[in-house]
Design brief:
- By secondary structure, the chain is mainly alpha-helical.
- The radius of gyration is 23 Å and the shape is elongated.
- The model has no long low-confidence stretch (mean pLDDT 79).
């Protein structure tokens, strides 16, 4: 856990240094843009796959969550 905290701290500092430097010589070619688009699409499709694969668990969770509230309200009457 300590390693993850340290690596996140280093990454945050590097980002701050990069953002606040005045003479950034950054270059984004079309390959970089298409790679970022590919990452975005892959993340979206991956998240949809995870939701689809665990849909039964998600439905069961919400059914139990709302059925408890319905059962609790009927017990009070």
């Amino acid at each position: 856990m300590h390693f993850l905290n340290l690596s996140g701290d280093i990454a945050a500092r590097m980002n701050l240094i990069t953002v606040f430097l005045r003479n950034n010589m950054a270059y984004l070619d079309p390959g970089s843009g298409s790679y970022l688009l590919q990452l975005l699409i892959a993340g979206l499709l991956g998240s949809l796959f995870v939701i689809r694969a665990s849909w039964d668990r998600i439905k069961t969770f919400f059914r139990r969550l709302f059925s408890r509230r319905d059962d609790d309200s009927s017990d009070e009457e």
